[in-house]
Amino acid sequence: MTSSSYATARPVQIRWHPAIVRSAPVIVIVLGLIAVWYVAAVLMNRNLVRSQFERDDTPYTTGELIAGTLDAERPLLPAPHQIIETFSEDVFGWPVTSPRSLIFHSWVTLSATFLGFALGAAFGIFLAVLIVHARTLQKSLLPWIICSQMVPILAVAPIVIVVLGSIGLRGLFPKALISAYLCFFPVTIGVVKGLSSPDPIQRDLMRTWSATQPQIFWKLRWPSAVPFLFTSLKVSITISLIGAIVAELPTGAQAGIGARLLAGSYYGQTIQIWAALVAASLLAVLLIGLISLIERWVGELMGGRA
Amino acid sequence: MMAPGKGAAARLPRANTPFHAVEPMQNLASVATLTEKPAVSAPLAVDVTDVSLTFETADGQVDALSHVNLQIAEGEFVSFIGPSGCGKTTLLRLIADLEQPTAGSLSVNGMSAGDARLKRAYGYVFQAPALYPWRTIEKNIMLPLEIMGVPDSERRERVKRYLALVNLAGFERKYPWQLSGGMQQRASIARALSFDPALLLMDEPFGALDEIVRDHLNEQLLRLWDKTNKTVAFVTHSIPEAVFLSTKIVVMSPRPGRIIDVIDSNFPRDRTLEIRETPEFIKIAHRVREGLRSGHSYDE
Amino acid sequence: MTLSWKQAAMFVAAIGMLAAVAAPLSNEPTADLFGRPMLLAAILLSAALYAASAFVSARLSIAVTFAGVLVGCGVTLVLLRDDTIEGYAASGFWVLVLANWIAAWLGVAALASVKLHDKAAGRMVDLAIPLLFGAFVFYLWEVVVRGFGVPSVLFPAPSLIGVRFFESLWMLWQDFFQTFILGVLTGYAIGCGAGFLVAIVANRYTFLGRGLLPIGNFVSALPIVGVAPIMVMWFGFDWPSKAAVVVVITFFPMLVNTLAGLNAAGHIERDLMRSYGAGQGQTLRKLYLPAAMPFIFNALKINSTLAFIGAIVAEFFGTPTLGIGFRISIMAGRMALDVVWAEIALAAIAGMAFYGIVALAERATTFWHPSYRT
Known about the structure:
The structure holds 3 protein chains of 3 kinds. Chain A is an all-alpha fold. Chain A is built from 12 helices and no strands.
């Protein structure tokens, strides 16, 4: 019995609500970072704005200079409120099907993400089941699977797109394939860990009941693997999103968040780039939330806390 | 038959003498013995005065200890016994300055527990060996010596001596996971002794081991205590272990922790495990058991 | 005499080899095997080895199988050098390939189930299995592409890529230097170093740590790679912008993992340090940092792959006329796919070597962790 079973004793203690204790540091740091951002925006944009004033031959005060840095059209570092402005404009200001709407671009990227995720996750699970049951595959294939992740897929992306393009598959499918390549690996590793996780004691018990391999799989291994599966699915879907975005780059795609980043970069539309990044981040959060919801639903189906 | 505790003041500590000369950190107790201050009563290693400790937990306040008074003289081997949750580990941690009391005062070697800790007055042995897996056994024993700034030349020498003392000579280059549980715990004891503290605090050190190894280690610990003349505070669950090892047994009650009984025990210092079947042993064990029963240790 | 299915399969392989004598080698008129006596002899040898491996003892049969595979693959590769066969290969050719495939598969499977007592030999076998597997995959690639006559503009054979690789060594070196040494390594060093230092500070001041950890976790999940165009805007076209992207990508996983690692030391070990009266710096150096090593190396390994991806993505947004990403996009546009594949081979080798070095360093410093001892 060690003192880890007690909290540390303190003479007098103001007791905060646990929720405040947990969130206070994050809130403070986030506010601090926003403050630093504004200062950085002023510092980084000031040369731009100054030369603009000088070109227009208008006299300016420091106040006007600062106001100018936070409102520039093509700033080096846009202020947070500028980003939020452009973001809401691009999301709410255009009809959903317009190529100027962030929702349109998000949908293009999301569809590639979902397809790639579905392909990658399915392949990853399939591979994991194979690896756990066939020792040969484990020793011969697994090292190559690990190596596959060290090859920057981005190098292969243009080839994939060109090759698939020559047999007539363009647009969604090549992007989804690249996403799938990137996101199958965490699923494979996680599910292999999960399928191997049952205690030897459990496995011995199955043997005393003369259970067949499929029975052992469906009644023991697969249920034990579910928590591991969901953890790796969360990682996998964010990677799939990144893959979809990045797959749009080497081909100069016209639609999608990656395309938006490219366009913003070509035409010097800084704030557009930041708005697209915010959209991508929101998508990532949404996707993780989706998986978490499914996880909780499955958890309840499987009888509460696994 | 000399009562073990009282003799320490008059006797020069045998094995320790060569090292107290170079030891940078000396505790006051051994200084007192060297200069042979006329001791009317044996100097106190630990003096606990009306100590209480209340924890703030998520479920409200927990009274771990309540008005505990205790004195441990130098050279004594004191066991704390009681059911889980009676505060015996907490009391040990208070002495070690790993916790602070909410009421009452504590002195170790005549100074506050905090000062004693900073002066490296005690060695602590936990329930688990807590050896660092990235260090060899040798380096693990050296860890406190590195922290306390003991010179390089002396470190190796001490490691060899204390490993020999716990019968682990030759295992210097091994890693903790290559040793059995009992051997790891012995290494942990050697580590606690390596900087030569006068006080040894042990929290159920043999709890995780099987009975055969435990018996063996009990005997070894006794020999060690006899040879080095340390003061030992020992927490245990096991009545036979407490009675076998100690010069004084402190029986504690469940929460809030109180001392129910303090039993003095006078077995000869060179005793072996056979005394566990003698009538004196059984009588003392019986008294311990009665103390536990009266403290409602068995009702829960 | 009953045959195990493995023995039966080896017989099938042997028969397959012999069947090539009867079946047409090519869709174009060409000399059959009787007109190629050396190859015929080799085929017979290979078939004999396959058949023999079904009978000899387990360990020997592995060696015999692989000897047969070597001969059999050699035959097909030599056949491909004939213009009348390359691009027009027919069933006779393919049955040879199939037979080799069966034999190779069985050989690898046998190797995988071999139990060795010697640990060093065991590790060598563990290394050999994926290598042999991979070598055979390359062989299949070679014969399929050349046998079916897949246009090399689309999907070149490994031998062609190898030739192009060695022809363009200088260009490859320049690209490698630009992307990897200047972009990846600098960014990796700065990003991981910064993440590490911030984690140490955040560990010291708990408030900071409790705030940064959730934020770090959050940012790690975002498509950070999207800051590439912004970095190009800030740092220009050359390698500093690539390094900057790599810094941003590697910072957060390093921060999060180091923080987790610094908290990984156990309760008892911390109490031990306290009982020695150890100072903050001593506890950090002797306990927290060594205990954090497994976590730190986990981040270093993840970052090694992320860094490479980041540098190449950054190149898509602007780069001087150098760099792996740049070369690939330009050459892909020109349909010079063999150069693209050579660059991919370069990227693959560099990526695996980088990861391998980090993994070796990990093994040297965290040999004590339970995950290595099982």
